Amino acid sequence: MSTPNAHYGFAERWLPRLVLAPSFLLTLVFLYGFIAWNGYLSFTNSRLLPNYEWAGLVQYATLFENERWWVAVRNLGIFAVLFIGGAMAIGITLAILLDQKVRGEGAIRTLYLYPMALSFVVTGTAWKWMLNPGLGLEKLMHDWGFTSFTFDWLVNSEMSIYTVVIAGLWQSSGFVMALFLAGLRGVDDSIIKAAQIDGATLPRIYWKIILPALRPVVFSTLMILSHIAIKSFDLVMALTGGGPGFSSDLPATFMYSMAFTRGQTGLGAASAMMMLATVAAIVVPYLYSELRKDSHG
Amino acid sequence: MANSEKFWRFALYGALLFAAAYYLLPLYVMLTTSVKSVEEIRAGNLLSMPMAVTFDAWSKAWSTACTGVSCNGLSGYFWNSVQMVIPAVAISTMLGAINGYVLSKWRFRGSEIVFAMILFGVFMPFQVLLLPMAQTLGMFGMANTTAGLVFVHVVCGTASTTLFFRNYYVGIPDELIKAARLDGAGFWRIFWRIILPMSTPIIMVTLIWQFTQIWNDFLFGVVFASGDAQPITVGLNNLANTSTSVKEYNVDMAAALIAALPTILVYVFAGKYFVRGLTAGAVKG
């Protein structure tokens, strides 16, 4: 179907292109054009209002000297490692447990996955209440007799980023479970049966046969989770607002506050370019390999 | 042997139930807190059952709670979100269906490149669009309007919808199209008569996916809308972060549940499609 036959009329041959044109133009102008525009802004001295005079690498130099930016980058590192690692571990474990011919599997799965339907703002608001020092978890523990229990991570600038990890894991680990469960169901039963006949134990079968077969799922899940991590904005805004101070800032919240609340347009644009570069470094090789796989059948 | 088998089953169900409790806990806490009075919240703890159920916090969250300077509750934000989500979902889904149809069944030279270019839109961090988009919306008088938000969501959502439909249509045998073409059916007739009637599952997936994404969006809402056009997520965030002398967690929780209700309902009634949507974007085939 890839090449329309010659006896199809002019309209039939050009119609597909014409139909695709609006979306193509939207993409070209509003994605790629805007990337270029934002890129240009990052090379200007724009403050509250954009100005289009070329200023070279000034904004990038400022960015790399900015302590707050490095806090955001370091936080992203901590958040990404713990969030991705934790969600993978919880997700795979729950998927394997659910795969043991469990009664009521559908209902249990539904419970694990519903946080994914909520917005990060809702998740952040809920966890902010549960983690607040005073009335939340701390009071609960005191009521249960652990009177020396303190949990002030939310207002502790050393620990605030870890509360973002806690809420993020709650929101997304069920989703990883769903991805892996779908993957597990796709593994050929006959290989597993053969291994069982050979006397392999269940953990060994999972470790040696099933998990290696799930490599593509692991890979896509890693992609999606790292993508969520880099884009994380709402959760931080709702849970900690980036605080205390700017101790739980991520690049996304840094960009927002520079560009829209502190009138540092050029700096905001530069930080956005850094985010784009990070995502592109991860995603472009992935898309390239996916599309190549596609065209080879 | 039988005993150890029993023990493992017991441990398995124990672990699964423990995990279920972990996922359910915040929902339980939100629900119970939202029907308690402020005094009761102070007296009890996170897990204590409400002694006297009251829906005051709900009505306050809906109509009189303060979100920054105004004190009209979340109702206005809620309707803003409704007005935003319906056209944005409808338009991005339609565009996705048509794009997917062309990109799978009417490929032409360069169509793969077009697909790859659109696909990058699924992954790109939207932060790079914010500044230029704010300028552009301002130029066209669409800043701080629901129409502006609809436009942004269509631009950014069409990448995912195109991906969904394209991957689904690739699975429809080409022979079907060939046969129809031999019978003299053209581009549109094949779309309306053959492709679309087979598309119900993927349309459901896309509608639910887009609805959830757009309803839950916060970034575009907070950047491109102010005051009268702000969506529910922004309203909730304003409400929860408005400092009052006495923090009313019951109102916060009622507000969070109001903001979550539409997507929870979709999840409950169309969960099957929701899961399929989540996995369709990630695991191909």
TrEMBL record, chain A:
It comes from the Bacteria. It holds the Pfam family BPD_transp_1. The keyword NADP does not apply. CDD domains: TM_PBP2. The chain crosses the membrane at residues 18-40, 76-98, 110-130, 161-184, 205-230, 267-288. InterPro entries: ABC_transporter_permease, MetI-like, MetI-like_sf. GO terms for biological process: transmembrane transport. GO terms for cellular component: plasma membrane. It is found in: Cell membrane. Residues 73-288 form the ABC transmembrane type-1 domain. It is a multi-pass membrane protein. Keywords: Cell membrane, Membrane, Transmembrane, Transmembrane helix, Transport. Belongs to the binding-protein-dependent transport system permease family. This is Sugar ABC transporter permease. It comes from Chitinibacter mangrovi. The lineage of its organism: Bacteria, Pseudomonadati, Pseudomonadota, Betaproteobacteria, Neisseriales.
Automatic annotation (TrEMBL), chain B:
It is found in: Cell membrane. It comes from the Bacteria. One of its GO terms (biological process) is transmembrane transport. It holds the Pfam family BPD_transp_1. It comes from Chitinibacter mangrovi. The chain crosses the membrane at residues 7-25, 84-102, 114-134, 146-169, 190-211, 253-275. This is Carbohydrate ABC transporter permease. Belongs to the binding-protein-dependent transport system permease family. Residues 78-270 form the ABC transmembrane type-1 domain. Signal peptide: none annotated. InterPro entries: MetI-like, MetI-like_sf. The keyword Lyase does not apply. Keywords: Membrane, Transmembrane, Transmembrane helix, Transport. It is a multi-pass membrane protein. Its main location: membrane. GO terms for cellular component: plasma membrane.
